[in-house]
Specification:
The protein is mainly alpha-helical and 42 residues long. It has one domain. Helix content is 74%, strand content 0%. The radius of gyration is 18 Å and the shape is rod-shaped. It starts with 8 loop residues before the first helix and ends with a helix. Keywords: Membrane, Transmembrane, Transmembrane helix. The chain crosses the membrane at residues 12-36.
Amino acid sequence: MAETDFKEPYNVFYFLGFVVALLIPTLPATLTWLSVLQNMNG
């Protein structure tokens, strides 16, 4: 991991794609849980 000084665009897009892939399913899941909790409480 000593070649991190190059900062290739491929590595950046690969990292961003990985983060987005993790966040995309999280957004609807969070909204769904909030809706479920609100329905249970009220």
